[in-house]
Amino acid sequence: MGIVLIKQAVEALWTPARMSNADLQEAVNAAVAALKGLAPNDALEGMLATQMVATHNAAMECLRRSQLDGQSFEGRDQNLKHAVKLLATYARQVEALDRHRGRGQQKITVEHVTVNAGGQAIVGNIGAGARSPPTREAPRQPLALADETMSKPPMLDAAQFVRAERLKKPIPIRRGGR
After folding, report:
1. Is this model's pTM higher than 0.70 or not?
2. Which end of the chain has fewer CB within 10 Å, C or N?
3. DSSP conformation class of 42
4. Is residue 20 part of a domain?
């Protein structure tokens, strides 16, 4: 799973042909570091983390393009609009990851309360109160992005990897008919 997700994140990078090997290596390393930083714990988190890295990089590219010298107003406006959409998507992805990890914030609003004779009610903000003692459970280890049988993850030659991927021919998809 890990190598496929790394490959997908790297393939989503904008890497112009004129990009130097050093810059390409730096971009690949940043994408891999971002994936590791998100520390996916399962397959769903891994896929979401990969999408988040791709979305972030695309948004940053749109923001970069909006600032190019000689950019027309229309070009700047289009790039900024795309960046806003991508950044909103990224925020929703962060929320989805938090919800999946159980960190989503919940809010309950009670609008009507009926208290019968002899009953009691408290009106106002109520805190969580005393918490139960923490369990001595071992912290969950994030899934490794590299093959777990390896002592060290393989070093990727980014330039060779990206250029080799570009040389691969796409698989044709049949449309309609037989």
Report:
1. no
2. C
3. S
4. yes
What are the angstrom distances between the C-alpha of 178 and each of 16, 170, 173?
A: 37, 20, 12
Q: Residue 34 to residues 23, 76, 160, 171: CA-CA distances in angstroms?
A: 16, 27, 21, 29
pLDDT in tens, 12-52: 999 888 999 999 999 999 999 999 999 999 999 999 999 99
Q: Under a CB-based contact definition with an 8 Å cutoff, are residues 2 and 16 in contact?
A: no
Q: How far apart, in Å, are the Cα atoms of 164 and each of 23, 31, 59, 118, 158?
A: 17, 18, 26, 77, 10
Neighbour tally for 158: CB within 10 Å: 23
Number of domains, the chain: 1
Chain position carrying tokens 């960046």 = 83
Helix (H, G, I), strand (E, B) or coil at 54: helix
